[in-house]
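Weekly sync, protein design subgroup
Attendees: M.S., D.O., the rotation student, P.L. (late)

Item 1: inverse folding check
M.S. brought a backbone from last month's batch and wanted to see whether the design step gives back something sensible before we order anything. D.O. pointed out we never logged the input encoding, so this time it goes straight into the notes. C-alpha cells as presented (104 positions):
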C-alpha cells in the first residue's frame, strides 16, 4: 500500500506530464482531461474533448501519443485508458480545430 507521500508524488508527476501534452492537443481545438487515477494499480483514465470528438485520429492520439508518453515517463503507470467526449455537436467540434483529417 502506498503512503500519502507516495501518492502525492505520483499525482504531481502525472499532472506535470498531462500539462506537458495539453498544449499540443489544444493547438487543434481539443483538450486532454484527466478523469480518474488508481495510484495503487497504476491505471490512468483520460479523455479527449473539444475538436477531438470529430477527429478520426483521436484513437491514434490516445494510444500513440498519450499512452506512450505517460507510460514512458512514469514507470508506475501500467495502463492508460482513454475515451473521447463526443457530446459536442460535430460541426462545432470540427470548427474548433486548425488541423483536419482528410480521408484519402
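Designed sequence read out in the meeting:
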Amino acid at each position: 500500500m502506498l503512503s500519502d507521500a507516495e501518492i502525492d508524488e505520483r499525482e504531481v508527476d502525472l499532472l506535470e506530464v498531462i500539462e506537458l501534452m495539453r498544449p499540443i492537443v489544444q493547438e487543434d481545438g481539443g483538450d486532454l482531461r484527466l478523469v480518474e487515477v488508481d495510484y495503487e494499480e497504476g491505471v490512468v483514465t483520460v479523455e479527449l474533448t473539444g475538436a477531438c470528438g470529430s477527429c478520426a485520429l483521436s484513437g491514434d492520439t490516445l494510444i500513440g501519443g498519450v499512452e506512450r508518453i505517460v507510460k514512458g515517463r512514469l514507470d508506475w503507470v501500467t495502463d492508460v485508458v482513454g475515451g473521447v467526449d463526443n457530446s459536442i455537436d460535430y460541426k462545432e467540434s470540427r470548427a474548433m480545430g486548425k488541423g483536419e483529417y482528410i480521408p484519402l
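Discussion: Helices lie at 4-26, 58-73, 90-96. The mean pLDDT is 86.
Action: P.L. to compare against the previous round before Friday.
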